[in-house]
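Here is the promised in-class demo. Please do not try to memorize the tokens; focus on the logic of going from shape to residues.
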């Protein structure tokens, strides 16, 4: 591991030298004066004074050498369509969308909410924002109206981009009614909404003066030329909301220069994606993986990126491998849940296709269990790289780095700290460093490397308080994950230290779900915990106290209220947050000071020993939880 060790050492001990070298991977309109400015810890400013543009680096820079190479291959098994766009074509489409946005009044620094299905226009829109210096905030299409409204109010966008609808598993999902509802709920709705018609909603009605037809406006801007707006490296490129301990999602703010450099470097050192090759990332543009590894990083590296609208098992469980074969994909990035889903299918799907182009499969977003890791590695006969990171980091924190050195992989482990991260395992009690095989909090000594979040949008104080104030003795970044390092130096991630749960790789806050459950008129209070699930990793489970219990005496009555509560969660947050079950109790286990004992509930729900029970105010609450679980 000498090569890796030296690379990592240099990234920490000679930060400026290391990152100045990586910064050569992108174009700078104006060179930066300082590699790192760290005058106001923990706020790190990278490549200060440098001017660049993400869209220029993703597209314009490649036109001379690879204008006719495919930049984007869009495949939809939902509408059975496939479209390819060369770098030159994407460049033209992006300029057209940029011109459309400018015509609707969008200026540098303005926020644009993108609430769209996985269509090429969404991809163009992200790059168009980057081109004109607007700040995009993509909201995952599975989020409900109330969640969308909360993000609108926080970001205060001047424009929102959406579509009439999308499709999931062959079933139409209408977007427009949900958007209308979110704009009714929002206190700061955008003045304009640009709507792409896909033909899903023939009865769609536009609101006069607010709604603009995408295709009509696009027709007026055919052949538009919009120059890149050069921005200082530390200006915001985007906001992406993510869940945490509180009910209010945080707007993770990212910069421009640091992000471009970090992504370009990760393609070289971690993902081994070369110009002219093809990358297939199965995520969604609504998540950080989609931002980094469907849109920006593959293009920064001069690759062809595949954008897929559909599920892994339709038309059959061989679809992803067929895509790899047909498009000669070299790098693939997916999530453990998807692999667990495929593991339940006929293994013949894996040998049916020619996967010889594929160099690595990268998996992230949730714990990768050993059996699944081993199964997919043996079935593919390729290195399968588990790697660990967060919305906050924007790119890997722990990973093998085959571009630096080919180190042996261990099943269930995301290997080692990535260059740039001064990673530590700290004891929760006193922030001292844990020894080998000792469970502790995964922490990063600041400054965070380039590409990581700059701050919480509009709330510097929350950034410091949330991430850097967990240890009283040291100002370190807490990942809120437990981890251990074995005798050989390999890390293993053991789950979150906070109330965040991970459902099929989707990060959700149990507090958010609790707030959603409590929106039902008959719920007095509730506790939501994440319980282990063989397929999805975790699932939310709700325990609720009803105001009026008269209808809960019969099993039928309980089922009815459970269904209503689930519907309320669907409406508030979206179906991805729907609890697996809602159990009704008359009191929740609490401490004497009134804190709900979620960990205890979680232990009982997972059939584990709840441990110390002395802090419980009323042990009867425990019995109720046990009984409700028994009743199923
Ligand atoms: O708990 C960790 C888990 O997912 C969280 C971050 O989720 P998100 O912000 O959606 O970003 C995903 C980017 C890939 C982490 O705090 N997590 C992510 N990767 C892994 C993981 N847990 C275990 N192993 C991983 N490889």
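The designed amino acids, position by position:
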């Amino acid at each position: 591991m000498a090569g890796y060790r030296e690379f990592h050492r240099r990234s920490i001990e000679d930060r400026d030298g290391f990152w100045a070298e990586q910064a050569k991977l992108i174009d700078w309109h104006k060179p930066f004066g300082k590699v790192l400015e760290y005058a106001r810890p923990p706020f790190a400013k990278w490549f200060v004074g440098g001017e660049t543009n993400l869209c220029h680096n993703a597209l314009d820079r490649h036109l001379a050498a690879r204008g006719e190479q495919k930049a984007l291959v869009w495949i939809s098994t939902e509408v059975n369509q496939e479209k390819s766009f060369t770098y030159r074509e994407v460049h033209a489409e992006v300029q057209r969308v940029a011109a459309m946005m400018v015509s609707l009044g969008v200026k540098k620094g303005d926020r644009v909410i993108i609430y769209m299905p996985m269509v090429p226009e969404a991809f163009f829109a992200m790059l168009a924002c980057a081109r004109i210096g607007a700040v995009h905030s993509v909201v995952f299409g599975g989020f409900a109206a109330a969640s969308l409204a909360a993000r609108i109010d926080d970001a205060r966008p001047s424009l929102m981009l959406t579509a009439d609808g999308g499709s999931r598993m062959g079933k139409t999902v209408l977007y427009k009614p949900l958007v209308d509802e979110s704009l009714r709920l929002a206190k700061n709705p955008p003045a304009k909404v640009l709507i792409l018609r896909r033909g899903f909603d023939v009865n769609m009605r536009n609101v006069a003066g607010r709604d603009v037809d995408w295709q009509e406006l696009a027709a007026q801007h055919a052949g538009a030329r919009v120059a890149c707006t050069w921005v200082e490296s530390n200006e915001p490129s985007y906001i992406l909301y993510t869940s945490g301990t509180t009910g209010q999602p945080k707007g993770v703010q990212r910069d421009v220069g640091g992000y471009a450099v970090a992504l370009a470097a990760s393609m070289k050192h971690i993902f081994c994606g070369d110009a002219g090759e093809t990358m297939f990332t199965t995520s969604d543009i609504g998540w950080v993986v989609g931002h980094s590894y469907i849109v920006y990083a593959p293009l920064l590296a001069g690759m062809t990126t595949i954008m897929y609208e559909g599920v892994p098992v339709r038309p059959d469980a061989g679809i992803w491998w067929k895509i790899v074969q047909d498009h000669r994909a070299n790098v693939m990035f997916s999530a453990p849940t998807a692999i667990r889903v495929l593991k339940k299918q006929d293994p013949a799907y894996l040998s049916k296709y020619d996967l010889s182009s594929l160099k690595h499969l990268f998996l992230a977003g949730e714990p990768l269990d050993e059996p699944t890791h081993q199964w997919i590695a043996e079935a593919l006969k390729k290195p399968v790289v588990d790697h660990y990171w967060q919305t906050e980091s924007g790119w890997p924190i722990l990973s093998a780095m085959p571009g630096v050195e080919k180190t042996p992989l261990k099943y269930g482990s995301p290997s080692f700290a990535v260059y740039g991260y001064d990673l530590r395992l700290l004891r929760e009690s006193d922030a001292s460093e844990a020894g080998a095989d000792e469970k502790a909090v995964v922490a990063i000594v600041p400054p965070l490397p380039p590409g990581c979040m700059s701050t919480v949008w509009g709330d510097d104080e929350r950034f410091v308080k949330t991430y850097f104030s967990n240890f009283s003795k040291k100002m370190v970044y807490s990942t809120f994950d437990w981890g251990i390092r074995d005798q050989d130096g390999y890390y293993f991630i053991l789950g979150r230290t906070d109330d965040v749960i991970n459902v099929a790789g989707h990060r959700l806050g149990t507090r958010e779900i609790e707030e959603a459950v409590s929106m039902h008129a008959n719920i007095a209070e509730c506790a939501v915990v994440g319980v282990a699930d063989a397929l999805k990793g975790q699932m939310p489970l709700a325990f609720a106290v009803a105001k009026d219990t008269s209808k809960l005496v019969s099993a039928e009555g309980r089922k009815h209220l459970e269904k209503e509560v689930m519907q309320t969660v669907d409406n508030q947050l979206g179906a991805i947050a729907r609890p697996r079950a809602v159990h009704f109790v008359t009191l929740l286990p609490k401490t004497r000071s009134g804190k709900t004992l979620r960990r205890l509930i979680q232990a009982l729900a997972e059939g584990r020993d709840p441990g110390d029970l002395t802090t419980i105010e009323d042990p009867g609450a425990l019995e109720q939880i046990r009984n409700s679980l028994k009743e199923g």
